[in-house]
Amino acid sequence: MELPQQPSQVHLTARNLRGIAHPLRVQILTSLRTEGPATATTVARRLNLNTGATSYHLRQLAEYGFITEARSPGGRRERWWQAAHANTVAPDNDALDGSEGLGIAYLQALGRVWSDALTAAIEATPSLTPEWRDAQDFGDYALALTPADAKELTAEIHALLRRRTSAAAAADAQAPQDAARVTFQFQLFPTSEDRRVTQPTDME
């Protein structure tokens, strides 16, 4: 099924965080973005969920603008859903500081979903072809950065991924036979306690 054209981003606010700060909703939205439009039954099958619960979460995602109804293939009397945007922008400072803790709840939901995806990938490694075992990568880097350095590095990585995404979309109809959908997880965060708060200035 051809994926619909979507606006590029949705920004999280104090209001719409209520519709996405839940691990199952993050999973469902991700599935609609990566695997295309689906019914509640299809989403439940994709994610091994209960259809009734899936229907409820789909309605909540729709109420807060994260998904919209899609045209039913072949005119069948089924309710199909599609993602309304290509990606979600992380909560800004206002959303993180307020929203009854929903900004942090959303990030926690993301963490759970990403952790589960990583675990599933590790468990599936024995079933991969030798080529994909060589291509798969699990790694991390420990760096010493200023906040400005961290923002610059993040921007560079996102720019590279956007170029890859644009190139893949342009060549989608001619994708090589051995091409597969991949997930690139990317997180950058301070790990030193002395970087999480502003240090007092020594005036002596």
Give the structure's gist in a few sentences.
The protein is built from seven helices and four strands, in the order E-H-H-H-E-E-E-H-H-H-H. The protein has 204 residues and is mainly alpha-helical.
Please give a structural write-up.
The protein has helices at about 25-35, 40-45, 50-65, 95, 100-125, 130-135, 145-170, and strands spanning about 10, 65-70, 80-85, 85-90. α1 packs across α3, α1 (about 25-35) crosses α5 and α2 packs across α3 (about 50-65). The chain is globular, with a radius of gyration of 20 Å. The protein contains seven helices and four strands. With about 200 residues, it is mainly alpha-helical.
Query: Main sheet: which strands, in order across?
Result: 1-4
Strand content: 5-15%
Low-confidence stretches: 1-6
Determine the N-to-C terminus distance.
68 Å
Report the principal-axis shape.
globular
Could you give a short account of the major beta sheet? Answer: 2 strands, parallel
Please, what is the average pLDDT? 85
Structural class, by secondary structure, is mainly alpha
Percent of residues in helices: 40-55%
How many β strands by DSSP? 4
Enumerate how many helices there are, as a single number. 7
N-to-C SSE string, H for helix and E for strand:
EHHHEEEHHHH
Estimated radius of gyration: 20 Å
